[in-house]
Each structure stands twice: as C-alpha cells, then as structure tokens.
Specification:
By secondary structure, this protein is mostly helical. The chain has a two-stranded antiparallel sheet with strand order 1-2. β1 and β2 form a beta hairpin. The longest helix has about 40 residues.
C-alpha cells in the first residue's frame, strides 16, 4: 500500500494540477515559437545587410552597432562578421526547432496520458467568421471624412 502512495506523489494529484502543468507546457511551447520568430527576423535583417553591402567597394566605410556602441569599420571587416552572426543565428534556430519538436512530442504524450482534448467552441468560430466579414468592410470609407461641405 505504501508503494502506491509514493507513486501518487510523483504523479499530479488532481485535475487542477494537470491543467496547470499542461498550461505551463503550452506556455513554454509558445515561448519557443516566439523566440524562433524573433531570431528568423534577425536572420532576415542580416541577409538584407549582406545583400546591401556585397556589391560595394570593400574599402568603403560603414558603421556597425556593437554592444550599443556605433563603430566605424570598412565593409571588408564588417562583412565576414555579419555573415558569422547570421550563421550563428541559423544554428540557434535549428536547435530551437529541435527543442520545439521535443516539446510538441512531450505535450502530445501528456495529452494522451491524461486524455486531454482541446474544446473548440462552435460559437467562437461563428463569431470569428462574422468578425472577418465586418473587418473586410471596415476599410471602406463612404462620404466625406471631415463633414466640411
């Protein structure tokens, strides 16, 4: 009998604890998604910079922000550093994608173990559709804006 009590201590005690654990896992998943998105935007910015300075003369001056300080360098010095930073960001994104897949699997295993199903209310879908219809009509301006005639 004592062994079953010890087993219960390792498992969540009630539905509320399970729900909290599930919400925490979903929150972690959303944080990973947002971090990946943020880093992908930085990679995009690095690509824009690389494409902009690539055709320019390597001895031309350019400015680069390093730790909040704007420094003057040549394109020849800056280009490899920006390329390395971009590659480093891509590696971090790859690791985050792996962590994302692990977290997704962990969540799906957790859902299967505790028979968690996400309820999708039909009312919400209908409200979303009507909001989309209203939203598309909101961009139309009819009549004078200021009322001055």
């Amino acid at each position: 009998m004592a062994s079953s009590i010890e087993g219960d201590r390792r498992e969540p005690v009630n539905e509320q604890v399970v729900a909290n654990m599930y919400a925490s896992m979903r929150s972690e998943l959303n944080q990973i998604y947002s971090k990946i998105t943020e880093l992908e935007m930085e990679v995009s910015e690095h690509s824009l910079v690389i494409n902009a300075i690539q055709p320019l003369d390597p001895s031309r001056r350019c400015y680069r922000m390093i730790g909040g300080v704007l420094v003057e360098r040549t394109i020849k010095e800056v280009s490899p550093a920006v390329q390395r930073n971009k590659e480093g960001l891509e590696e971090v994104i790859a690791r985050l994608n792996e962590a994302l897949e692990k977290k997704k699997k962990e969540i799906s295993d957790f859902e299967a173990k505790y028979k968690i199903r996400i309820r999708k209310a039909d009312n919400n879908e209908k409200q979303d559709e009507s909001a989309r219809k209203e939203g598309s009509a909101q961009g139309v301006l009819v009549g004078p804006a200021g009322g001055s005639e």
